[in-house]
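User: Can you write out an input/output pair for a complex, sequences first and structure second?

Assistant: Here is one pair. Inputs:
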Amino acid sequence: MKFGVVQFPGSNCDFDAYHALRNVLKRPTVMLWHKDHDLQGADCVVLPGGFAYGDYLRVGAIARFSPLMQQVKAFARDGGRVLGICNGFQVLLELGLLPGAMLRNKDLKFLCQHVHIRVEDARTDFTRAAKKGQVLRIPIAHFDGNYYAPARTLKDIERSGQVVFRYCDPDGKVTPEANVNGSLAGIAGIRNEAGNVLGLMPHPERASEALLGSEDGRVIFESLLLSLERPKRSHPKAASTKVRS
Amino acid sequence: MIDKTILDRHNLTEDEYRLIVELIGKEPNLTELGIFSVMWSEHCGYKSSRVHLKKLPTEGRHVVQGPGENAGILDIGDGQVVVFKIESHNHPSYIEPYQGAATGVGGILRDIFTMGARPVAVLDSLRFGPPDDPKNRSVMEGVVSGISGYGNSIGVPTVGGEIAFDPCYSLNPLVNVFCLGLAGKDKIFYAKAEGAGNKVLYVGAKTGRDGIHGATMASAAFGEDTEHKRPNVQVGDPFKEKLLLEACLEVMDAGLIVGIQDMGAAGLTCSTTEMAAKGGMGIVVDLDMVPQREEGMTPYEILLSESQERMLLVATPDRVAAVQAVFAKWDLDAPVIGEVVEGGRARISFKGEIVVDIPVDAVVNLCPAYERPIAPPAPPPPAPPLAALPLPADLGEVLLKVLASPTVADKEWVFRQYDHMVQLNTVFLPGADAALLRIKGSKKGLAMTLDGNSLYTRLDPRTGARIAVAEACRNLACVGARPIGVTNCLNFGDPEKPEVMGQFEQAVNGIAEACRTFGIPVTGGNVSFYNDTEGLSIHPTPVLGIVGIVDDIRKAVRPGFRGAGDAVVLIGESFEELGGSEYLRVIHGLEAGAPPAIDLEQEKRNQDLLLEAIDAKLLRSAHDLSEGGLAVALAECAFHSQEKRGCEIDLEALLRADALLFGESQSRILVTCRKADAAGLLKMAAGRGVPATVIGRTGGAAIAVKRGGREILRVPVEKAFRAWKDSLPGFFQVRT
């Protein structure tokens, strides 16, 4: 399978994602320039971390106007796998591919540290190599990762099981202390209803090599490989193209 | 037309003015005077420091580029070089902490990528007044946010550094930013304008009125009217810099340009004249072609603006379109604003008229160098004899207080605001003795550290400076790295005060001596004088940035204790030295006495032994002893162990208990090894003339120390950890 990593002008984890996919997972990976109109046959599109357009206004707000985003939206609508990491997650929210929005971290500071997240659903294309309840140690690095959604939306995404990761302590307990950025319901990552689009604030590419302190992030990429290279156990909803209005 | 008032406003003396007239063969107009004023400022011209800096060793087998360029360059093998430098942004950071620090980061990044290197690491050395004062806290918060805001956005990790506090920095904080980049040895670019007929291109942000005379501002002491200088501080735009970085590296990688220079201090003036002077050429510039952010700017303002995120490129005429295409890809304009010409003059026109016509050599190379009057620095206030110093009853309480002192306390509150992991090279997170980066595709590692203890340098500038070099090298050795090169940032007071020049001279001597002993070259750096506010000078504060290489990154060692039952070994010798110690300052309120003595040859032997033991995989952990001495080092090793493992230490009663625990004798390293390896380690040490003693074992949940068989310290690791961890955040908690 082939990965495509989108490059916005202010992406700064684009080559990190490339490194993890190409050199660690050893899969063909192409860079996708935001001004292009072609996904170059990628089977999975990754929106990496960074500050897409400087993000002086609302994070990710300008990125959604990049030409390539039309292709990404169509790709997602057709069931293509899209993974948004950090700024990529923020862009997915702005694109309307995922519900909710990001606020500044509760302490109004940028936070770069390892956190623990709990796998809430191990049946998604992004988590099927993990176990439900598994605790992953993965770094975060963001100023705007305080997930927010109106009460009704939150109820909807909880009911349909769209919360894929929650901040937790090392033992897997979701506590206020573990929720360092103040996200609603401790949400660290969500998927769309169809299950083919995932956004998360932690950086799995930063937790892909033992030398750098953790390999826990690999399970997300490995899940994608399982889903796309041996797609026999597909998620019940992955084939659906239904989009919520 | 040019009178004393105008000269004063430009920080030029009448002698300097006469020299200018002589060199250019005419009375300068105001714009030309402005050019000389910035290029001959202390900041750009190093006029007080040059005669002393010559004493620093600059040669070495790794050196590709020594002082004189934007940054130093060292060969690290495998066809790669590191490009690195440190710069101060002290004055702007006091006036406007956020933007001052942010543009400090932006400026040093440009120094690195202008040479063709991709910046891979930033470290900062910061000094503030005590954090119990809200004004100091606000400066610190602003500086940290500024570094975070700029560095995080552009995607260069801030991997380490140091922070210390002293009242002398309350009105004059120090912000020294170090950056290191990686480049191919055959892909280095220089700031040269070569080839008559080649085009000069302007890229990056538009020019505005911000930062006019920033370099001149940084070359004078501050009075009470500092607030009025706020408009002199530039405003940073990290997104623009990110575009500029990528576009510049792309044109360099494609070999599309001849030369490149960033517009830092003194902006367009500095970049045009320096490039011409270095290429042995002249330059013509049409200011009407310079993109401007504001209307009605005068030539004086355009030339002296320090607007950020701008670069100057030189390209052959046939490549101009290709260069412009790359910049367009990154949404940047790259207009041609001039041309390289024969003749060695800078001719600058504005609305059809020549407004500047001067020889570039005079501007760039003929700034006078001064042998300023020197007076020996005042001797330190004598420390009371130890006998007169009361021995505190509860040394456990003392340890908790020293651990909570802001200089010693944990700095995670700061470091977690910096993205220290982006680019996927950070092997050791901030908090280790030195930052350690892997080099992708190689088993080598790059280690780097910033060090300087300004209390030592205040008490004895020469010894303090020697210690700064020694400690930086020791920090590198603790992770297993050999030092290969040095950059320094010399922060001092007003050089027109003979005593300050005395401190400067001695500090430079100390650095030179230590660098010679370690065999490491100084490849560049920065001098920041006039760190005087309202007549008060800061402590002399030389900060050393040293880069080292780890041959096999898998062998690198961390500070934390590992298993229980490991032998704890102290390398080096302890003396009854409390002068200049954190203990004396925090517990007895004294900044006095002579700093600890340092024997550079012994230091080198100790470090060589450490490197040899790490290479032989004998060691399980290593941590250097610095502020707070043995007790603090033991505590930090416990904090850095995964299980917060304690230790049981048994010391001979050779020294007073407080000197034993908190004395800061130099050249000491605390290491652990498996019990079975201890004898081998001691034998290796004895063979190298290095004192080494097994002082105890790891284990338990407390830091416990006996002296002559009697327990003098027992503090639960968790309790000590909280004192150390909670101190700094405590100052910044929102009080409700």
